[in-house]
Amino acid sequence: MHHVKPIRIFMTGVGGQGTLTATTLLARTVLAAGLPVTSGEIHGMAQRGGVVESTVLIGCKSPKIGHGEADILLGFEPMETVRALPYLKRGGLALSSTEFMPPLSVAMGKQECPSLDEIKAQVAACTDQARFMNSQTLGIQAGAVQSGNIALLGALCATGALPFGPEALAATIKANFPAKIQAVNLKALELGVAALNA
């Protein structure tokens, strides 16, 4: 195990989106790179429409992330990105989907849905290191809407913020998925990297 500067990653999405699959994949990629990792699910609503929050911590003693402590925020749904913003440290890296999959409270009209511009403005108030992409659309292009999360993960690996690149994530996908799902996820990964560099 080589010494690594601690990186705290906070991930959030909506149930049924594949947030936990993304969490597991990222954690396994860190392990394969020979780095110490802790991952956990803070808040898991497995049913569709619930909020899912999880963490992946590289080289950290504690598995917890408090407000203002996340180096990286990965938001698989823009409203969830905003809700999780308090966890991101000032100037941290935010990667977010631009496509709404509102949680049930919004769908049932209990809450107003902000516009994407409002969301981008709130993120910009916290950090100038923010990237947005239509990850669900990329997932659909790759062959499965859930693989949109893999597109976002691929983009994260391509930012240089992690101690490995997209090829490390590709290797984990190959090691952990059956052939059929593998192809879709590898395509999504490729599309995510391309979207980041676009």
UniProtKB/TrEMBL annotation:
List the protein's name: Indolepyruvate ferredoxin oxidoreductase
Pfam families named in the record: POR
Instruction: List the Gene3D superfamilies.
Output: Pyruvate-ferredoxin oxidoreductase, PFOR, domain III
Q: Which organism is it from?
A: Pseudodesulfovibrio alkaliphilus
Cleavable signal peptide: none
Which branch of life, at top level?
Bacteria
Which keywords label this protein? Oxidoreductase, Pyruvate
Molecular function (GO) terms for this protein are:
oxidoreductase activity, acting on the aldehyde or oxo group of donors
List each copy of the Pyruvate/ketoisovalerate oxidoreductase catalytic domain by range.
15-193
UniProt cross-references to InterPro entries, sorted A to Z:
IorB_Oxidoreductase (IPR052198), Pyrv/ketoisovalerate_OxRed_cat (IPR019752), Pyrv_flavodox_OxRed_cen (IPR002869)
